[in-house]
Amino acid sequence: MEQDQRNTFFILCIFALAVFLLAIPPNMTGARNPEMLAVFEVDEYAQYPHLVRMLTPGGSAYQSLRNFFVYEHYFYGFPFYFFSAVTLAPLTWFVPDWTEQTAVVVCWLRQFVSVLPMLISILLLTWVITKFRRRRVSIALFLFLAMFPAVVQNHFWWHPDSLSVMLICFVIFFLDKDNLRLSRHFFFAAAFCGMAIGTKYQGVYFALTIPVILLIAVIRLKMPIRKAVASAFLFIIIMAIFIIVSNPLLFLPQERAEIIRTQQLQFEQTSRGTFTENRHELFPNGNLPEPIRKNYAETWFFILCFGGLLIGSSQRDSKQALPYWIIGSYLVTAGAITFSAATSRLHYLLPLALPLLSCYPFLEPLSNPAAGPQKKTERALPVLLAVLFFLQFGINLKTSVQTWQTHLRREADSPSIRFYNELKNMLPEPAPNSNATVKILRDWKVYFPNQPGFAVKMDWEMLTFDQLTAFQPDVILLEQENIREFANPNVVVNAVNPEK
User: Fold this and answer.
1) What does the pLDDT read at residue 366?
2) 3-state class of 449 per DSSP?
3) What is the side-by-side order of every strand in the sheet holding 454-458?
4) What gap in Å lies between CA 362 and CA 75, rounded to an integer?
5) 285-294: buried (b, 16+ CB within 10 Å) or exposed (e) per residue?
6) Which ranges of 33-183 would DSSP assign to H, the alpha helix?
7) pTM
């Protein structure tokens, strides 16, 4: 990088540090104990005990090694748990009784597994679009992407999405840096693509991108077809190697079978639904759904970004057009896969929205003014686009601040925690030195932490009559959402498994 680029990079790092530090206070909330994780993010609750076991020493070196690698929660690839464990390990060395410090541990994980990788992703996308040569535009784009409400929301849980997005952005970065030479950076992209597939499958979004790059190299740069074909095969080989290396349990037959079974279940739930059939429309009433418009951008802004993508990819200079060809071909596959799934959650759109919304068309005309004086009509469009950009930025910033404030006070405002406190006052206190316990049978998200004098049971499946008769609970705690949905006999009509 030139000096001016380095200065821009340094300024962006300062902004990134500020965002990182601002995320700490909200991330210290919602995790006083492991059970509280289920109140706000049930995925964290499911993941947490597996990570604790990974870092718990066994009775022998073999058992400790097995605890680390056989992580058992195969809904996500090993890179997520490996990165989480390696990140958390230094904290376990310096914090005594770290397993009792749930709030500190979970905050640490949210910061270094969710916040930091996302900020790196945004830095990479900013580089791909601006090359840090246009300081004001680079700062505007970085802050714009960093202030997306969906991005801010994603900072406040420990989940593999930020890591997956970061690996995807490294693929885009190295493909752009390779500049159609099909040299070492092209194969660095293959390695990161393999790790992205091994983490959350999202590396497959580049299935169309690699042929497009090879085709452009052959047509525009007159590259020999033999070299393009050889590079394609080598890309696939390197990608496959990193898929396997990043998931070493694939070498163990028993664990491999369990991974395949879990992933089949994951695909079934994503394509159809967990308990009932999921159906959603992408454009109800000709508009994007309200959650997408609130947490990403308005429909008109997405349309402008598509326009920017088309304008960027139509440039005659292949070096300037390349980032847009990479992003455009990537989005075709990513969109086809994401929008064909029955299950849709806001964070599923992060790998699509961030690259697309980085292509807003005001960036180029605003940073490359014509050398001579311009007519008012020639300047009007870039000014209008800039105004619309900052209008959307202002809307997003307001929502993001509200999201930050909501998470900062989520414990105090939680009806689940308030319900627990009221319920605890109603239940009899266990007598000292007594073996008598109050049996609690609860749904996933109902908050009732394990504590002396209470036997608390929870099952990831729906509660059944057989469980009631076997456990003989004194108190049954059910989620209102489950009561409303499953007390309706018509739910069987839309059930994924009607007999169950």
Assistant:
1) 44
2) coil
3) 454-458, 438-442, 475-477
4) 40
5) eeebbeebbb
6) 37-40, 42-54, 61-69, 78-94, 102-109, 116-130, 135-146, 149-154, 161-178
7) 0.90
